[in-house]
Amino acid sequence: MKTLLAACLAVLMMTLPGCDQAPAENTDAPAVEHTADANMVEREGEITLKGKPMTLLGEPINIGDTAPNFVAVKQDMTEAKLSDYAGKTVVLSVVPSVDTKVCAIQTRSFNQKAAALGDDVVILTISMDLPMAQKRFCAAEGIEQVITLSDYRYWDFAKKYGQRIKENGLLARAIYVISPNGVVTYKQLVPELTTEPDYDAAIKAAGKAAG
């Protein structure tokens, strides 16, 4: 009986449109493997959550480093890479979740300050939120000057920048400014997860990098 059922299911799958064809592969995207945490560097005590020390996974990116390219997901579920913004000054605003108070304030603050930076500066807010949640948040808050990216699919940003929090899987709060030639010129890893970053310092650094 089990053999007959398996044969019937196999025939049914072969008759469904597209079931005999492999899906198109995005060769630019990293492999989706989230089981390598045991092999990653663990950095303890660099940040806290309500005073409790947290552990960051991966090697950190510092000022003077070439910013690693990464793949993330936009609100419409298409993919975007850091390299898409080559030639511009990029402000990476990293937040745990736009559905939390401080992250919402951070995103709104950069949205308000973006206009003063001009067209040569792009602000990217990146989190582990699903793209649909980011889209809903931006619509509700009138976020139009900031581009949101989700790291939920590949964790590519989290791994390459050493930003993933081991204890909860979210991204640590941070700001990076990347010059038009792809070099990190400013970084703030916010030491307490529930506090806001230094907006003025980041905006000043962005203006300087943009020339």
Summarize the structure.
The chain has helices at residues 2-15, 101-114, 131-141, 156-161, 199-210; strands at 42-49, 52-57, 71-73, 79-81, 89-94, 121-127, 146-150, 164-165, 174-178, 184-189. With 211 residues, it is of the alpha+beta class.
Averaged pLDDT: 87
Give the strand line-up of the largest sheet. Answer: 7-6-5-9-10
Bulk shape = globular
Give the CA-CA distance, first to last residue: 73 Å
| Percentage of residues assigned to helices | 25-40%
Count of distinct strands: 10
Report the top-level CATH class.
Alpha Beta
* CATH-derived architecture: 3-Layer(aba) Sandwich
Please work out how many helical segments DSSP would assign: 5
Structural class: alpha+beta
Q: Overview of this structure, please?
A:
- The protein has 211 residues and is α+β, with helices and mostly antiparallel strands.
- The chain has one domain: Glutaredoxin (3-Layer(aba) Sandwich), CATH 3.40.30.
- The chain contains five helices and ten strands.
- Strands 7-6-5-9-10 form a five-stranded mixed beta sheet.
- Strand 6, helix 3 and strand 7 form a beta-alpha-beta unit.
- The longest helix has 14 residues, at 2-15.
- The radius of gyration is 20 Å and the shape is globular.
What is the element layout, followed by pairings?
Blueprint: H1 2-15, E1 42-49, E2 52-57, E3 71-73, E4 79-81, E5 89-94, H2 101-114, E6 121-127, H3 131-141, E7 146-150, H4 156-161, E8 164-165, E9 174-178, E10 184-189, H5 199-210
Parallel strand pairs: 5-6, 6-7
Antiparallel strand pairs: 1-2, 2-8, 3-4, 5-9, 9-10
